[in-house]
Amino acid sequence: xxxxxxxxxxxxxxxxxYGRHIIIRWSEIYFTGILKSxxxxxxxxxxxxxxxxxxxxxxxxxAISEKVSDSIGVNFKIFLHGIENYRPxxxxxxxMGIDVHSLDIxxxxxxxxxxxxxxxxxxxxxxxxxxxxxxxxxxSRLLKPGGYFxxxxxxxxxxxxRLLLLLGLQPTAQKSLSAHIRTFTxxxxxxxxxxxxxxxxxxRAGSNFYPFPPFISKSLSRFFPSMA
Length: 228
Fold this sequence. Notes:
Elements: H1 2-10, H2 20-37, E1 42-50, H3 56-72, E2 75-83, H4 87-95, E3 99-101, E4 117-123, H5 132-142, E5 143-152, H6 159-166, H7 186-194, H8 214-223
Parallel strand pairs: 1-2, 1-4, 2-3, 4-5
């Protein structure tokens, strides 16, 4: 009965797990900085989404980049790239004008030139992978100096996972009957990313806060990101 109560509470918050509003905000910060600091009046911007799915994050980024460009008055061309292997998603993204590559992100070299990407996104991807050393190596090769690697992963240290462990129950971020094979906390991800000096951890944000409804969850995520 208590379990059903909490399930009803969190119903309708699932979309927040993807943190799309955070990706939009951080992309806007990048575009504003790069366009304001450039002496060029025409620029090419390249965005890569690893596991692009329906292309929602890329579509949102295209819209926010156009908004920033209009406000600053810099002309640019934005090129959207995706890595995706599920054929229906590939076709869907191609119809949106996304350049889609199908490859094994854990073992194959990504088919893009060195230093070619302004932003690389891995949103709800890394928890499904083993070879994150390879993934981070390839992303560091692709990013331009000062480029953004935006990572979204489930948080093992979220409030609901802590409570489940306290009760001797399996945390939802790492269940055997799921496709997740890795778990992360913000501190662990930062330590891994900064090891070797390839990346510098800039910011973190929480997107959802189980088991609370959206209007509460958003506020709690903002104030307590380590438990979101």
